[in-house]
Amino acid sequence: MRKFVHTVATIAFAASCVATASAQLPACPESAVIEGWEAGDLHLATAGSSRPAAPTGFELCGASAGFGDDDDSYRFLTRRQGGNFAFEAEIATVSPGGSAGIVARRSQRGPASAHVRITVRLDAGGVTVDSGFRRTDGVPASLPGASVSGLALPLRLRIERRGNTFTTAYADATGQFVPHLTAELPALEGSLLAVGMMQASGADDATAAASFSDAGFVASAVPRADTSGCAEAVTAPESGGAAATLRGAHLDHVRAIHVAGRPAEIVDAAAERLVFTVPEGPGGIAHAPVVIDEEHGSTTLPLRVVWAGRPFVRGDLDGSGRLSRGDLRRLDRYLQGRGPALSCPEAADVDGNGRIDADDLTRLAGVLAGTAAAPPAPYPAAGFAPDGGLACGLPRAPRIRLVRSGSGAALPADAELREGDVVEIRGSGFPRDPERATVLFGDVLTRVLEGSTPARSVRRS
Q1: Confidence of residue 148 (pLDDT cuts 50, 70, 90)
Q2: How far is residue 11 from each of residues 52, 53, 174, measured CA to CA in Å?
Q3: DSSP conformational letter for 25
Q4: pTM of the complete model
Q5: Which residues make Cβ contacts (< 8 Å) with residue 92, sequence separation at least 6?
Q6: What is the Cα–Cα distance from 423 to 350, expressed in whole angstroms?
Q7: Do residues 235 and 308 touch, judged by C-beta distance below 8 A?
Q8: Which of 90, 111, 296, 331 is most buried by its number of CB atoms within 10 A?
Q9: What number of other Cβ atoms are within 10 A of residue 57's Cβ?
Q10: How far apart are CA 351 and CA 308, in angstroms?
Q11: Is 460 helix (H, G, I), strand (E, B) or coil?
């Protein structure tokens, strides 16, 4: 059985109100309160009825014409629903000449309210499916597309909303849904809609009924990022494998997770918690959104994955996995401008202050001699910077402050910069000059530093 937020299972009920022949139907039985649902009549001269039917179904009965070009009249049983949703119901029986179906409507009070619907009708040719909509309040209704005839009861119907797009569908003999109508209805944007079941006899002077089973909203995954205390990012090595956790509702309905278009393995999935492993990072991409796929479509999460390059040991410049005199000589040559470029600049930041300078050389020498404190993590085991900084293989975001070139006066964050102003960016994280760089500001300016990646745009603030 399908899973619903509000699940209603199969139905069996007495045929006091439902006819399977063409005989005149008696008056509708007394209506009963159905908890959680709003029951009523839209533009009916005579009140209809709604009642639960044993064991867990619904029966709607009334005298009404149904959907018209200019106004509508029917018996309804609906819930208020906002946002994206999918509502399904199985039409178990319907009186000859009558119709039954499901509807998503702005208001059950106005007979010409904007809506979308899918209905079935029973006539001499059997069961026929129709879909239609009224784009805005008060305009004629549209019944686009061809009716589908030759079907049989019971028949399952569906209305799905994704943003302003509404899709109706009916289930074929295999149980798979066949799309019938897709309509863009901007007038319903942000509206709390009345969504549920409807029944009409086809005429105001004839009473008819219909029965429904398995009616309800199909549960959608409602995730929220929750990684180590509601963080908004997961740090993972380039090789992948880091575990990330989502928390929310109906997460057991998630079918797949993709990060930067790459599938992630779902390790554990429960209704309120889902754990997945981050896939291998694509080259050159430092971060990517997480997208979940479930029955009603795809959702992009606020959670982001940051591929943090390679793990490293602070002070291990040659990548041997330990600190040695060779690391000391390599750092010394680098600071003097005589050595090759560092394959992992983060490892050379021995004191972890974000700069590579003579203090790192002194600290490394002291660690090797046993006279200085051990470097901060990651040390002695390989790992990632605990402050969330990127590891080897990806650029480090500069820590900057702006000063007026020449005077050296610090500029506040809200300083007004004019085209042609020369301003210095001072800080750390630059690949060449670790202390300063000069940039010419225009209306929208790009910092151009030889060898720096990625280029950054700086705007007037």
Answers
A1: very high
A2: 9, 7, 20
A3: P
A4: 0.50
A5: 11, 57, 153, 154, 210, 211, 212, 213
A6: 30
A7: yes
A8: 331
A9: 21
A10: 20
A11: coil
Give the pair of three-digit tokens for residue 144.
């686009």
Closest by alpha carbon to 60, among 22, 101, 20, 97? 101
Task: Give the dihedral of Cα atoms 347, 352, 354, 356; nearest 10 deg.
Answer: -60
Q: Are 155 and 120 in contact (CB under 8 A)?
A: yes
What does pLDDT average to over the chain? 74
Mean pLDDT score, 163-180: 90
CATH architecture classification, 38-217: Sandwich (2.60)
Assign domain 222-307 to its CATH architecture: Sandwich (2.60)
Q: How many CA atoms lie within 13 A of 88 on its CB side?
A: 25
Contact 170, 157 (CB under 8 A): yes
Contacts of 394 (CB under 8 A, 6+ apart): 286, 307, 308, 309
Residue 92 CB-half CA count within 13 A: 22
Kindly give, in sequence order, each residue whose CB lies less than 8 Å from that of residue 355, ignoring residues fewer than 6 positions away.
349, 428, 434, 435
Q: Which pair of tokens denotes residue 393?
A: 């293989």
Q: Which residues contact 47 (CB under 8 A, 6 or more apart)?
A: 31, 41, 62
- In order, the DSSP letters of 352-388 are -SS--SHHHHHHHHHHHHT-SPPPPSS-SS-B--TTS
Could you tell me which residues come within 8 angstroms of residue 371 by beta carbon, excluding any fewer than 6 positions away?
none
- The CA-atom distances, in angstroms, between 300 and each of 258, 289, 333 are 10, 7, 47
Domain extent listing, the chain: 38-217, 222-307, 313-394, 399-459
DSSP structure string for 208-243: EEEEEEEEEEBP--EEEE-BTTTBSEEEE-TT---E
- Nearest alpha-carbon partner for 427 in 439, 418, 419, 416: 439
| pLDDT tens digits, 184-239 | 998 887 778 999 999 999 988 889 999 999 888 776 555 544 433 333 456 666 66
Note the pLDDT tens digit of each residue in 72-107. 999 999 998 877 788 899 999 999 989 999 999 998
